[in-house]
């Protein structure tokens, strides 16, 4: 996949490649910039982080740009054929799909926070369960299928086809990264270290060693599930037992 991508890119005019690369770098850098700014003072908060829907989505948007755009743009190259307008349509639709997923995520989290009341000592077990589910998901056929579809974007004939391709790509990327996003929500969307690590994993899983990276990531998540009840820094967004007075 990565070889095909760079083979295609080598056929572009030099100025097109430079402009596209600079534009992508600027957009991703802005995503990280706004994510870091919004994360200030929110480290260690999980779930909705006490935010309203609007504030949650304002944090979700640059996070998606920062984490997903590097891999998404490379995957989209065959579909947009280096045409700026097509690339814009692809990214807007792709981002819109992720924003809908963010909306659904917020509704689920907010509903759970209203209904469930987990004592502090039980939250470490919730975190362990989240790691367990995310780790197991790395090995299920649905994960493998979504990963392969996410890595194989086909050429698009027109703008409507670009939009449909982008929507499908967004959905398969969500299916591929669902386990990672659950972990990120558990440890805190403002956890920049977790974000950076998962971004590297997502990119490597997409373009270099897909099966190996998926399995290694799954194994590490399962190890984290075993260790989480005893290691507090593995669940910074979900507090452990209250200190003894």
Description:
- The protein has 245 residues and is mostly helical.
- The protein has one domain.
- 76% of the residues lie in helices and 0% in strands.
- It contains 9 helices and no strands.
- Helix 3 packs parallel to helix 8, helix 5 packs antiparallel against helix 7 and helix 7 packs across helix 8.
- The longest helix is centred in the middle third of the chain and has 32 residues.
- The radius of gyration is 19 Å and the shape is globular.
- 36% of the residues are buried.
- The N terminus and C terminus are likely disordered.
Strand pairing plus helix content: what structural class?
Answer: mainly alpha
Largest sheet: none
Number of helices: 9
Strand content: under 5%
| Amino- and carboxy-terminal Cα gap | 57 Å
Number of strands: 0
List the main descriptive attributes of the protein structure presented here.
245 residues; mainly alpha; globular; disordered C terminus
Summarize, please.
The chain has nine helices and no strands. The chain is an all-alpha fold. The protein has one domain (2-234).
What is the fold's blueprint, element by element?
Layout: H1 2-10, H2 14-39, H3 53-80, H4 84-115, H5 120-137, H6 141-150, H7 159-187, H8 192-207, H9 210-227
